[in-house]
């Protein structure tokens, strides 16, 4: 099962890529004259923010989510799904009919599990947006790290993690920026997202808030 926290981080990414408060302007989040100078200090400072927010997320999750009930629902739904899949593979009509009688109940359990997991996000997304939109752009430059390879694995311009020569040329032609100094620099929001994903699993295991515990 995919760790639910990965899904939450991906939803965070959508918020971070947008311009929710209308302050981003023509370029990515960040500053041309940041308070934190240099890539190395920026790299570790953003990691610090990532760890802090991950710990906050884990604390809220531990407080709001009944982990015993969640694990019971997960185990029950997983067992039912596995049995149903086996019945379909073996074309056991009697077993399929028997398991289908529980579909409404299992759908209800799945919805309850989703609600339990989404509840913490409704609280944690607020400080995340405030910190990311109002604090971090004044502290850090548009790019805070550099990758040896391009990281833009999703087609299109919306989810670009690293600078491209093409985008740099387009910005220069439009008379905006510069937001990047060289190709493959990692944007501020992207470095936060990558570090959040990297540390979230470890922190959730340490705080015993992982769905897979």
TrEMBL record:
Metal-binding in keyword set: no
A single Gene Ontology CC term: membrane
Entry keywords, A to Z: Membrane, Transmembrane, Transmembrane helix
Compartments, as annotated in UniProt: Membrane
A matching Pfam family: EMC3_TMCO1
TM segment ranges: 39-60, 121-142, 186-204
Family matches, as InterPro entries: EMC3/TMCO1, MJ0935
Keyword Membrane: yes
Topological category with respect to the lipid bilayer: Multi-pass membrane protein
Stated name of the protein: DUF106 domain-containing protein
């Amino acid at each position: 099962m995919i760790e639910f926290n990965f899904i939450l981080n991906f939803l965070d990414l959508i918020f971070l890529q947008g311009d929710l408060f209308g302050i981003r302007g023509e370029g990515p989040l960040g500053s041309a004259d940041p308070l934190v100078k240099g890539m190395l200090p920026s790299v570790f400072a953003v990691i610090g923010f990532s760890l802090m927010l991950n710990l906050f997320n884990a604390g809220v999750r531990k407080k709001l989510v009944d982990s015993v009930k969640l694990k019971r629902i997960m185990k029950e739904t997983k067992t039912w799904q596995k049995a149903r899949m086996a019945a379909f593979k073996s074309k056991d009509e009697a077993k399929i009919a028997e398991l289908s009688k529980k579909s409404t109940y299992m759908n209800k359990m799945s919805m309850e599990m989703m609600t339990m997991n989404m509840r913490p996000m409704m609280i944690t997304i607020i400080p995340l947006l405030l910190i990311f939109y109002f604090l971090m752009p004044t502290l850090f430059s548009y790019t805070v790290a550099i990758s040896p390879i391009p990281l833009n694995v999703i087609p299109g311009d919306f989810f670009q993690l690293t600078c491209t020569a093409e985008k740099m040329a387009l910005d220069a032609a439009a008379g905006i920026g510069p937001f990047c100094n060289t190709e493959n620099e990692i944007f501020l929001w992207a470095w936060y997202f990558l570090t959040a994903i990297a540390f979230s699993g470890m922190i959730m295991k340490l705080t015993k808030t992982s769905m897979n515990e």
